[in-house]
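User: These chains co-purify. Model them together.
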Amino acid sequence: MAAGSVLVIGGGIAGVQAALDLANSGFLVHLVERTTSIGGKMSQLDKTFPTNDCSACILSPKLVECGRHFNINLLTLSDLVSLDGGPGSFKAVVRQRPRYIDPEKCIACGLCAEKCPKKVSNDFNMGIGERKAAYLSYPQAVPLKYALDPGHCIWVNKPGRCGLCAKVCPAGAINFDDTVKEHVLEVGSVVLALGFSRYDPSPLDFTGYGRLPNVVTSMEFERLLSPSGPCMGHLERPSDHREPKRIAWLQCVGSRDINRVGHPYCSSICCMFALKQAVIAKEHAQGEFESAIFYMDMRTHGKGFENYYNRAKAEGVQFHRARVHSVIPAPEDSNNLQLRYVDEQGQVNFAEFDMVVLSTGLQVYRHTVELATMLGLELDVDNFIKTDSFNPVATSRPGIFVCGAASEPKDIPQSVMEASAAAAEAGQIMAPARWSETSKKVYPAEMNIHAQAPRIGVFVCHCGINISSVVDVEAVAAHAKNLDGVVFSQCNLFTCSQDTINQMVSIIKEQGLNRVVVASCSPRTHEPLFQETLRDAGLNQFLFEMANIRDQDSWVHQQEPEKATAKAKDLVAMAVARVRSEGALPYNTVPVTKSALVIGGGVSGMTAALSMAEQNYPVTLIEQSDFLGGNGRKVYRNWKGDKFLPFINELSARVTTHPQISVKLNTEISDVTGSVGKFTTTFNDGHSFEHGVAVMAVGGKAYQPEGQWQFLYGINPHVQTLLELDKRFIDEDASLKEVKQAVFIHCVGSRIPERPYCSRVCCTHAIDSAVRLKELNPDMDVFMLYRDVRTYGQRERLYQEARAKGILFIRYDLEHLPQVTDKDGQLVIHAHDPIIDANIIIHPDMLVLATAVQPRQQTGVLSKFFKCAVDSQGFLLEAHMKLRPVDFATEGVFLAGLCHYPKPMEEAIAQAKAAAARAAIILAYDAVPAESVTAVVTAAKCTGCGLCVAVCAYNAVSLDENGVSVVNTSMCKGCGACVAGCRSDAVTLKNIGNEQIMAAVDAAFM
Amino acid sequence: MTEQSTNWEPKIIAFLCNWCSYAGADLAGVSRFQYPSNIRIVRVPCSGRVSENMILSALKSGADGILVSGCHPGDCHYISGNYFARRRFALLSNLLDFIGVEPGRVNFSWVSASEGEQFAEVVQGVTEKVKALGSASRLVKKIDALETELQVA
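Assistant: Joint model of the two components:
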């Protein structure tokens, strides 16, 4: 039998996500991290694009969950040294280096670091400032345990010297005799989440990096912005600690550079990274602030990115399409910097800045290459771990999967998707051994608080500086202490960090708290974490309220600190008033119907269906049309040259013949009832199907050119779309060889006010089609009329290949749209070439339009069946853009493919597998938590009028034989319609009764 | 502080449904859309949970204005709660008008989870309206005053 445990290497966001998905779906996870704590690069970020979410705030709950998870064995300071065997039964040897501080004993008091005499450059802060040789890498580190740095600790290097830490440690945790440990682990599969390093720009002398103190890398700048960074979130420049008023960002430092760096690829994330930093830096700056980004192409190709770009422009960020020639000290001795660059008109310009940020590219760690070599994995030309176009998380060695930036530069949502996809792949191998090696978390018995007077504890969060820079949190905590029933209040830097969570458990016990209020961010993101903390402390999780003093206070009243503080006091008082009369509620569950519905028979839908079926769950796949394969059948090949049709035919065959999959063509949904665990979906043929989860993979469609974007499409026969050209490639249309001159127009219908998003796939698709034409007829003249070339990641190679083949790229902008006219059947295109600043006329015999990808009309209708949200463009809206890219806010429903956002097939496949992994987390259980907040009737007050029965959308309320209303709690969703509808106040919602709500309202006026 | 005082600031109670409007309010924060700080948000599962009683009680407790906001028509997480809310609000408006509570004190809106900017605009609009109307302290139930009167009698 296969092993039921898995090895995950790398504790960054990708590794953490893979570990959580696997552990939550019934497998024991050994999470191996090279450094002292998990969190990776994301923990070093200040904010994340495009939502400007505080990175620590969204990451911390995941790290805490990982650190506390019963079925995750966290091995820090560890490396995989050997791996034998194959899928289902690997034998791994993991070597754990000594920490010299016993994690079992360390209480993270920090005395060792305080007394340690040895100062070391602070690597977590990118070398800005110092830490000690006894250290904690960052305040929210998981595990929250100190370590001694063996490279610098005086005792470790010369035993007998120093030893101060051991003298002061109150827990006796210092262990100088700590040694290397070897763990031999039998696992069924291996997931590699090895991350990336940033290019070191020291060799690029023109940037001045290393010589000029105010030239920093983007990661260094991120630490300067961070509230937990070296200047506590008050942006200062290194030379004189003055607040910079003019900052320039230099893009593509160590990316798209064959000449000096040898990195031909695009790092994919740096454009958004720089935009975010420019916007955030402006937020930090008091008053006047100038920011400028020097770039080649702005690559804002992800969901919400183009809007962010537009917003940055509106907020005054300057954009210069130029590669900077040199960064030199400004003439007078000011530590300022002078940039010399050539603008598009060929003019040499000089500009002075206080500070320069180098947007350094991503690259593979050297140890990643070593590990891959040891494991016998193939690497690609750029040393990234090689994957397959149609299996984007599989390495060349069966049973070993890769996710995140180790296989190509990519952003967090994409890494998270791949992590879940890798979890799905590993889950497929280990499915027979699910739950065989796991153990179950047992919470302490819950304290009966029934007859107790309220003893409320209030925890007020600084959230770094997110809250405390606006709201006087100490005053709020002091105010809370005087509220009725409050016996304890305190402030925390990050309430969601592991140490505070642990502390909260002990405070609840020590202070005998029986209700808790946390004043921090939104309950929508953090309530589950704190509720679990209550359970760990032996309190019912429903004796809890949050006051949202960040998202709904400090962030929206940034210029009014006094009013924001007054509001925070009210919000805390309201939460306290609400929690005061709340009671313990039962933990209800619903049994899970162990089958899945997949909506959409394109590549995404088929992939999701197959992955769940391979994990032994029955799947029904419905498709509106009469064939499987969807849009993918219309595309010739991807940028790597892999043809789609053979793959899709094979996939369709596997899906139609799989014993666990039932395919229903020509099928649409007419109704859906139920919720996570048990949905009942009725189809247009009248049949209905019960399923525990659903995956929406309803695809997208191509924009039909119209108005100023029509370019004679549908009028002149030589004008066609990319997909129409693909059809000719697929059909091996011989007439293509006869084409002498071809023009492609990019961004047809994308990146315009009506559709303010980039369609992500069209640059690569158009350029690949142009290359294909050149392959067919090398003498053909091919012109690309583009706005920004967005061949992100390794697709950049294709752009290089196209230019090498002589394809000409001419940029246009919205002020100078190409004009397409018809002269006696001959196409005539007028365009403006900004580089030579001249109008050009082309007479092509073919014009190809790279049209936008749009959501399908039906997406909105379908989303309503499952109560999922759509965004302003009509794409499905995921639960969280960064960390929950395949989930909906509605539990039990997942999404994949073009209905989420335009994406190439390899990304759609990864997302579909991710959706399958997330769905498997529900399907793995016999029952899932159900609504605990349900309606309850006081029979004595009920007049039997039946209004509650009429308003209940779930048929959960009925009148019994005595004409008294009764609620079926297993069907009640806790909406409260019956409560508001009752004329005799006989129905209430547990913990959300009039009593609690009106107490909260009254508290606002105390 | 008297009603005429120039720096008088109203307090507005907002009952927001958890799934759309409360999420929209969070998004306004995430996107840093600034709006007046007079609003005090009460999270409820659904706009359909908000009864006439809650609105009138809030006015009685001292609210100068009320906002009830739910999902857009057709988007209700609980299928139809927002329709009940709308109907209830239409009826309540008549009653409020009859008893002399000015239009604009009690407001209703639809704000979805993706409408952070709209949420900020709604709050801005409601706050301006309520500011123009002035304090609603006459609606506050003054028990102390009542008791004094009774004692005098």
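Residues 199-363 of chain A form a domain with the FAD/NAD(P)-binding domain fold (CATH 3.50.50.60).
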